[in-house]
């Protein structure tokens, strides 16, 4: 008989620990525990069976190993030091000892979370994958009003790191999509092979809600600001720009926007990329606010970088194939060794010949196509100069236009910034307006609404400006993040998406009519030879064709009904769910179309 195992000593009972037990183990208050878990990236866990876990079933649980991991965190000592500091300050305030209070304030304990960033993101690509939430939080707090709950220093830090990130996206040409929504402006950028999406609120007066726990949000923000500083440093180093960029006070006072940061080339060469690192094209550093770089030089640099990448890929693939061939040679039987090795060597020669630059590799062709598309995106507005009216979102348009290689100016910016220009400049090609009654007398420029810029970016091409003129009813601004399936309603279109089946049906019907017409013509010739009247032949032919169609439709319906009857109960339930969802989608589309028709009548 084996040894009996005492209940609660193994399994889920020891793998999980309740929050109250964790507080007693760490000797922390609940706010400090929450703060520490947020900074360390430790979150509650849900046991599969709460009855097998010690404690109340309504408790919040954590992994025991995570709580043990927190026992060795240096921030624990800092939290305890700060708790002691608060007690001493309160005691001195109770005694009205101002000298002691002033002396204690100078000795206030402080801490940083730099080591936590390195612990949570050992590789730089890990931080890029987790950048979406950080950017959304930073762009939210940068427009927050300064108040007692949100200090001015926090807002300034969010403004600084977010502006630095936007300047990097401009310099690297990483912007891919933009979408204007009710919540704010959605952006998507592709940085070192990672797709990053975030939302920036509109620059309106924000009302701070009273029912939000800002202590939790500020704890997240504390970590995100530090993390974003590390990310910006690495990104700037990658394109050989000095970090942190200096702030030009004169441009900042003149409302220069993103151009108030002075981007200077760093000393030395850009950091070397390892064999497994993501290769990115180095972009020449432009002057602040000037996006008219030499396109020929950029194109030549892109070609050289593309050749270098293709060569490195070919070498890596060559090495992998050689290693695989060597392993296969060791593991094969003695009888078939010579034949297989000879076959492997032949395949290797062919593969290497292709990998050295042949267009037969789909991966290389796809990489070249993406590189070409990226280059086109970066130079979409390179030949144009924009001027922004005061009623349009200046920072968003500046960011979008400069990311596509265009030049932009607005207001009285030209009076304090050397490379800016005034509204009466004859070289301006596009003026962005957002109100009717604008003077459009200048014949050598296009007057468009802001949506034209974002639609061009999403379409990756220059759209016709006739539909975007001042006072015009704009076309639907469709989200570039949504893919419409068959049967979905597409705004601004009278045709339901996925109407390919209907078109196919029409084509099939036309083909049937063509076949029927041929049969009809043959029957008419036959009847004419037999001396039968044409009207009788036509009538009989139409009746027979209709009878054939009815028989075919009845046969198809019977076969479908029989197939449903032969289904198992599981498959029949699944079929009913599919048909129910399709019917619900049809009803939803019909309601949207009715709503659109009613709105059009008004």
TrEMBL record:
BRCT domain: residues covered: 376-470
GO terms under cellular component: nucleoplasm; PeBoW complex; preribosome, large subunit precursor
Example GO molecular function: RNA binding
One Pfam family matching this protein: BRCT_2
Keywords for this protein: Nucleus, Ribosome biogenesis, rRNA processing
Annotated Gene3D superfamilies: BRCT domain
Compartments, record wording: Nucleus, Nucleolus; Nucleus, Nucleoplasm
Compositionally biased spans, kind Polar residues: 332-343, 534-544
Principal subcellular localization: nucleus
GO biological process entries: maturation of 5.8S rRNA from tricistronic rRNA transcript (SSU-rRNA, 5.8S rRNA, LSU-rRNA); maturation of LSU-rRNA from tricistronic rRNA transcript (SSU-rRNA, 5.8S rRNA, LSU-rRNA)
Annotated region (Disordered), positions in chain: 285-307, 324-343, 530-553
InterPro entries per the UniProt record, alphabetical: BRCT_dom (IPR001357), BRCT_dom_sf (IPR036420), PES (IPR010613)
This protein's record includes keyword Cell membrane: no
Function: Required for maturation of ribosomal RNAs and formation of the large ribosomal subunit.
Xref: PANTHER family: PESCADILLO - RELATED, PESCADILLO HOMOLOG
Family assignment from sequence similarity: Belongs to the pescadillo family.
Name of the molecule in the record: Pescadillo homolog
Highest classification ranks of the organism: Eukaryota, Ichthyosporea, Ichthyophonida, Sphaeroforma
